[in-house]
Amino acid sequence: MEIVYTYTKKRSEYGRQPNFKDGEATVVANFIPDESKAEAHFERDPCVTVAQVHPDVTDSAVNTSPTVSVARGMSHTEGGWPQEIDPEMPEHVHRYRKKKERSEEFQENVERLGNQLEDLIKQNNAIDIYEDYFSGVVVDHSSEPPSSKVLTILKDPHQQECRRQASYVSWYPDGARKLAVAYSILDFQQQPEDMPLSSYIWDLSKPTIPDFEIMTVSQLCSLKYSPKDPNIILGGQFNGQVAYWDTRKGHHAIEVSLVENSHKDPVWDVAWLRSKTGAECLSVSTDGYALFWDIRRLGEPIQRVLLKDKSGGNVHGATTLNYDPQAGPSKFTVGTETGNALACNKGAKNPADIVGNLFPGHHAPVYGLERHPFFSKYFMTIGDWTSRIWIDDLKTPIITTKYYNVGLSTGKWSPTRPGVFYTARSDGVLDVWDMFYKQNDPVLSINVSTSPLSSLQVQQQGRLLACGSKDGNVSIVEVSDGLAEIQSNEKQSINQLLERETKRERNLDQLEKEARMKARKEAKKQTEEPEKNDEMEEKLRTLEVEFFELTRKTDEDEDGDLLSSIETGDGDE
């Protein structure tokens, strides 16, 4: 929050105005040179001297401690009465009113004010002061540089007792200026025994004190407003239980799930499901399960889904969750602690097919996952040092941001601009990406906090962002009109960009498949050639044996014929 102090000074504080006049020379002092010091004197060349006789004035800015203010209402039903009238005596009040109502002055004033009020009422009925005269006109903000400002900082009321982080933020539905914040300490074995467990709902019109306290038996790790009834809040606790609160019925939970039927690890994310009753919800945890609940009966979950992928058969612990009815009322996507994303379908006929495609890619747990608000077949994941954009039917990302020097903690799409998304970094900086103008680098980097950012949520109107940090502060950032209002042809351009990147990735995937197939054929050919060579060598050896056998028999026959001819010749002689 920028604080500027302007230093002002009256003219009279500068001293008396000088009024110099010419006059004769006057000897003020006479100093005779000391010959003994002349030998120690030497001339310095050059000699630079600076003198300033005016006192120095500094301009500094400091962050002062906030003044805690309390808003209280008062009902005033009675006006002022003359001294001789006792307002507690009904007879005196009635007599005084009758007297005033009969006076001509009162009747004239009522008639005059009534005529004025009648004219104003007719104007109010005839003119709609909230009419938008330029609806549908898209304002071009391309020439405006993107900007932002921090409106206020919501501080944890227990910040002096212990340092809790703002682990989850949820905006009030329908664009109201309220938000719920879950405070917790998620570091292993770092929770003090007497740590506060409450989370709070804040009203931006009164940022100094919380508007409502959410009291829990275990610290909250996640919470979400109900889209059908904003008075109901769903929360996931550190001990694995799921609970819900009704702000009209008090600060304590209406109902909490049983420990034996809940998660065995902290509930890192929750989501409301689209249903006729508006009472069904979903929770995920690092214990490897996704549990479906009905808040009217939190004794046990409706369904348990083991997050086990088909290919490797490994069970994945969930760290984040996204449910978007536009992608399918029974479909949801889960980010895991192994750096993968799992596409799941609750409505699958075979229970083994509930967990579908596996999207590997990140080198660290996936901390953020959200589907595109305009094109539901695309979704974004945040993990390690990058953010990646995927499509449902490809196992490789179509867009990957550059690697940061610091880790990313979460990210969100803009609900009003198709090409804008936000990424929160562990050095306290919030990056704004605008793919409509630039794809390689963020268009704006906002220094939100000196502590790592831990949570992020964008208001439904796309203008306000709530950035939670590990020091317990939630900074409310307002972005400029260029980042909140959709631009001309933006939706079509972003759709073409995503389709083009998808086509490119498909071509690369096809080339990779062809290369693998060619490599397999070459390997198979190399394994078949030695077999052919062995057969040829065997044939050659057989032919060689047959040749030598044939030549041996031929030699024996020739030797026998020669011996017979010799014996015949001897007998003749």
TrEMBL record:
Record keywords, A-Z: Cell projection, Cilium, Coiled coil, Cytoplasm, Cytoskeleton, Dynein, Flagellum, Microtubule, Motor protein, Repeat, WD repeat
Keyword Lyase annotated: no
Pfam families found in the cross-reference section: WD40 (PF00400)
GO molecular function: dynein heavy chain binding; dynein light chain binding
Subcellular location: Cytoplasm, Cytoskeleton, Cilium axoneme
Region (Disordered): 517-539, 551-573
GO biological process, one term: cilium movement
GO cellular component term of the entry, any: outer dynein arm
Keyword flag Repeat: yes
Coiled coil feature spans: 96-123
Family: Belongs to the dynein intermediate chain family.
The name this protein goes by in its record: Flagellar outer dynein arm intermediate chain 2
Species assigned in the record: Chloropicon roscoffensis
